[in-house]
Amino acid sequence: MPESLTPELIKTAPKALLHDHLDGGLRPATILELSEQIGHELPADTVEGLGAWFAESADSGSLVRYLETFDHTIAVMQTAEGLARVARECVEDLAADGVVYAESRYAPEQHLAGGLSLDEVVTAVEDGIREGEALAAEAGRPIRVDTLVTAMRHAAKSREIAELAVRHRDAGVTGFDIAGAEAGFPPTRHLDAFEYLRRENFHFTIHAGEAFGLPSIWEAIQWCGAERLGHGVRIVDDLTLDGVPVTEIETPYADWSPEQVSAVQLGRLAAYVRDRRIPLEMCPSSNLQTGAAPSIAAHPITLLDRLRFRVTLNTDNRLMSGTSMSREMELLVAEAGWGLRHLRRVSVNAMKSAFLPFDQRLEIIENKIKPFYDD
Ligand SMILES: O=c1[nH]cnc2c1ncn2[C@@H]1O[C@H](CO)[C@@H](O)[C@H]1O
Ligand SMILES: [Zn+2]
User: Which of 133, 210, 227, 328 is catalytic?
Assistant: First the structure.
């Protein structure tokens, strides 16, 4: 295993990313250029100014306000050209950051204002992704990117969107998700979609346990049958140490002794999630912005990893959080006591949990991830 964890080394590490929103990862320069073409008004007119505007506006402490910033990215993703370009650049940016496998998600229902059909939206995105994969391979940074089709939880289109995802299953769509404001929109509102997907042997994850707590996670798993949890960070609400909720203990999780960690008591839901190895798609920087976690040092990812939940590390929205996979890794190394073995574990966990066929997952673990960490 390589020894010192410099930013350069972190950048070269092969990474797997399961939770990244296509409409949350645009380059500011692309937003500026596409907005000008369509006459969309933006809150800033320089690359730096716009990047800063997204990061600051998303830094609101509220998921609902965080989500309002997406109006400006979605505005430039209403044509086949705009969608394909954003998808292509997403793949190139991830590849340049050392990502070897990613699942990129977006909600086709939000891209119909320019007259595209749902199927045309998906086709445009897949075209852009294939182009990006070809360019990344040419640049010596091969990457595989699949997509997850998302339905918005406040809307009532999830069954239609689930059918859309299944129609494109052999063209790059490997899963389904629901996203958007969580409080007031429980996963069971979309039960019909999830039951349909299960009958189709299709994969899905559910954003749950971010802005709302244990009941949302419980519904996602026990009613809807989610294979993975988007965020799932509030599962810590089900953990106690000597009868005290772990979130009320001030010592940073990295500094807890092994005895303290093994004395943590899991409630029934947390125990189920850990026993069943249900993957948690954790996104530290995003959680700080929406108020789902107080700081990197106090982010539950470190405790959940020490307790051997199936933790994965993700970006959520690279633009809104001004982040990348490398940056999320650097933050945990600098502020939460993470080392190479933690980075290895979340990377292998992510590949184990990917919606990619099993043989292809193994191939990436054995030929890309392990050789880097185990040499
Ligand atoms: O962290 C999140 N929690 C819930 N919804 C989100 C999050 N990030 C993005 N979206 C929502 O997902 C849509 C499709 O990509 C985005 O438009 C945004 O509304
Ligand atoms: Zn998300």
Answer: 210
In a domain, 375, yes or no: no
Residue ranges of alpha helices (H) inside 169-324 are 191-199, 214-218, 258-262, 268-275, 284-290, 300-306
* Pocket residues: Cβ below 6 A from ligand 1: 21, 23-24, 63, 67, 70, 105-107, 110, 150, 179-180, 207, 210, 286, 316-317
Is position 333 within any domain?
Answer: yes
Number of domains in the chain: 1
Number of H helices, E strands in the chain: 18, 11
Q: How far apart are CA 197 and CA 147, in angstroms?
A: 16
pLDDT for position 3: 57
Query: Is the pLDDT at 31 greater than 50, yes or no?
Result: yes
Instruction: State the Cα–Cα distance between residues 115 and 137, nearest whole angstrom.
Output: 33
CB 50 within 8 A of CB 60: no
Q: Give the domain CATH number at 248.
A: 3.20.20.140
Q: Compute CA 27 distance to the chain's CA centroid, rounded to the nearest angstrom.
A: 17
Does residue 1 form part of some domain?
Answer: no
ipTM of the complex: 0.99
Q: How far apart are CA 146 and CA 268, in angstroms?
A: 33
Ligand closest to 21 (CA) is 1
Residue 172: per-residue pLDDT: 98
